[in-house]
Structures are given as C-alpha cells and as structure tokens.
C-alpha cells in the first residue's frame, strides 16, 4: 500500500485551485525548507541593516520603505522557522491529527507582519514625504546599498526558486504552479517575499534615480508608496492561502482519483465506494474511505483485515491517519469523470 499511495501521488496533476500530488513531490522538502528560510533570514538581516544606514544618510523615502520591508521580512523568517519546527511534531493524544496546521497559523502571523511592518509603514512614509518633502543626498551610497541588497536577495530567491522548481519537476508542473498550489506555506512565503523584495529594489532604484535627475522628492515618495502597495498585495495573497488550508483546502480530483484507483488495486480491497482526503498540514493527508473487501469473511476477520490495511496505508510518510469502513452492497463504486480536475 505504501507504494500504491506513493504512485497515486506521482500521477496526480494540479489545476488552478488544487494541489495535485505535492505531498509526494516535496518528500524531502523538510530539511530543504528550513535551509531556505535560514538563508532568507540571514540575507534579509544583512540587507535590513545596510538599508537602514543608507536611509538615515540619504533621507530617501524609497530607501526607508525598503528598510522597513527588509526588517519585516527578517521578522517573518523567525515566524516561518517556528512554523517549520512546530508543524513537524508527532501527533499525540491532545492532537490526534498532529500539529501540521501550526504551519499555517505561524505563516499567517508572518503575512500579517509583512502587511503591517512592511506595507503600512512604507505607504505612510511615502505619503508623509509627499506632504512634507525633505531634500535627499548621497545618492551613491543608496545605489551601492541597493546593488548589494539585490545580490543578497537574489541568493535567497535562488534557493527558494530551486526548491520550488524541484517540486514542480517531480510533479510535472511549472515552478509558479508549484508555489501557488503547494500545501507548504513556508516555501510559498519565502518565494513570494523574495520576489517582492527584488521588485521593490527596482522600484526604489527608479524612485531614487528620478529624484536625483529631477531634483524633486515626489518620485522617491511615490516609489515608497508603490513598494508598500506591492507588499500589501503579497501579504493579502499569503493570508488568503493560509486561510484556505486552515479551513480545509480540498485536494484535487486528480489526486483523489489516483488514490482511489490504487486503493482498489490493493490485494484485500475489491472496490472503493467513498474516499475523503484532507490536508492536515504541509504535505500531510488525512484519509477516510469506504471499501468492500475481497471475499465474504467473518466479522472478526473483517475487522482485522481493515485494521491491517489502515496500518499499511499509514506507512506512507504523508498519510497522517487512515480510517476505513465497510461499504454496503447497494453503494455504487466510486467513479470519476474522464479528465476531471480540481
């Protein structure tokens, strides 16, 4: 059964709203996910310090917005590290479905932090600069810091991109599909935040450059506002994705169909009449199925056979718990429309 569930995940494909077989695709993403977050933390911490110094020297609104952005990202990485650690604890009596959903809670905290410490501060400072403009200076320092920041943020983004591309290749999807549909919130958060960081650096550069060329602080202030709007959009998207998984994000029909087919191919199962799969954490699934066992066994033997199949299913590292019940003779076999997708 372990191989059957694994193969089912291998064959599933996500669509616009589903997750496909990312549970299998991200099999080894635990350690790699922590590495991705640590690299992002170190990069953001160094960048935040450099931007803060540059903002104090130059008085640039865009640089101040970027400093707020980087400090927000640095704090967010701490939340994401907590998410990785807490969500991987084994289930116990107090939490029979495990602690997987902790990842979505702490990732949502990080998204709220990005919205408040990043977006709100950047927009507020930009508006303040429009109302009470201040002269800028030492543009060379600003450009140098932006260049260094772009390199450091690029290194962090490269790690997140590498992890997402690897997952996408294993699932047969694009990198962006992998990021948008994955049940791993830390990968999605780091990828989105690093993407926003690189775009924000370009906006800050343009704002400072136009400030230098025109002598007007307005482009610089507008750059700060645009950075804030960008962070706000990213934060809202991340909050929404975490909300979906907290309230019960459905798996794709492609994954559901594949798992049903593999269950039906089990030596002890004649047919499947009902199947429910639910994400209970990053790459963790809860499985409930109604099956008709092979043969006509005594009640005692049926109970033993059901428990044996359940334990067999739970050997797969992505199945948190499997619960099987017997089908009644009048229940139809579970079928799927050809080419059904989530």
Strand-residue proportion: 5-15%
The figure for the number of domains is 2
Radius of gyration, whole Å: 25 Å
State the helical fraction: 55-70%
CATH T-level fold name of the largest domain: Alpha-lytic protease prodomain-like
Count of separate DSSP helical elements: 11
CATH architecture of the largest domain: Up-down Bundle
Name of the CATH class of the largest domain: Mainly Alpha
Write down how many β-strands occur, each being a DSSP E stretch of 2 or more residues.
3
The strand line-up of the biggest sheet is 1-2-3
Order of helices and strands: HHHHHHHHHHEEHE
Largest sheet: 3 strands, mixed
Task: Average the pLDDT over all residues and give the rounded result.
Answer: 82
Shape: elongated
CATH homology superfamily name of the largest domain: Cation efflux protein transmembrane domain
Low-confidence segments = 1-29
Main structural class: mainly alpha
Give the termini separation. 24 Å
């Amino acid at each position: 059964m372990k191989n059957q569930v694994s193969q089912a995940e291998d064959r599933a494909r996500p669509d616009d709203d589903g997750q496909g077989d990312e549970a299998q695709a991200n099999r080894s993403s635990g350690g790699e996910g922590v590495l991705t977050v640590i690299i992002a933390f170190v990069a953001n911490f160094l960048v935040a310090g450099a931007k803060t110094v540059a903002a104090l020297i130059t008085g640039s609104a865009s640089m101040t917005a970027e400093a707020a952005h980087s400090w927000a990202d640095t704090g967010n990485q701490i939340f994401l590290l907590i998410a990785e650690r807490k969500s991987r604890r084994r289930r116990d009596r107090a939490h029979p479905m495990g602690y997987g959903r902790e990842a979505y809670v702490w990732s949502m905290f990080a998204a709220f932090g990005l919205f408040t410490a990043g977006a709100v501060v950047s927009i507020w400072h930009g508006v303040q600069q429009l109302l009470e403009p201040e002269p800028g200076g030492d543009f060379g320092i600003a450009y140098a810091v932006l260049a260094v920041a772009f390199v450091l943020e690029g290194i962090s983004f490269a790690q997140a991109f590498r992890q997402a591309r690897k997952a996408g290749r294993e699932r047969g999807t694009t990198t962006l599909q992998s990021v948008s549909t994955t049940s791993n919130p830390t990968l999605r958060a780091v990828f989105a935040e690093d993407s926003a960081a690189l775009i924000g650096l370009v906006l800050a550069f343009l704002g400072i450059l136009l400030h230098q060329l025109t002598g007007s602080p307005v482009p610089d202030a507008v750059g700060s506002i645009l950075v804030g709007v960008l962070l706000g959009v990213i934060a809202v998207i991340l909050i929404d994705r975490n909300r979906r998984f907290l309230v019960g994000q459905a798996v794709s029909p492609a994954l559901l169909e594949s798992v049903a087919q593999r269950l039906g191919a089990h030596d002890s199962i004649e047919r499947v009449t009902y199947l429910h799969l639910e994400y209970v954490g990053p790459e963790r699934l809860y499985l409930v199925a109604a099956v008709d066992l092979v043969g006509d066994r005594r009640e005692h033997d049926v109970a033993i056979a059901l428990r044996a199949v359940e334990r067999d299913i739970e050997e797969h590292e992505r199945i948190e718990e499997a619960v099987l019940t017997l089908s009644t003779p009048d229940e139809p076999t579970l079928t799927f429309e050809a080419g059904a997708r989530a």
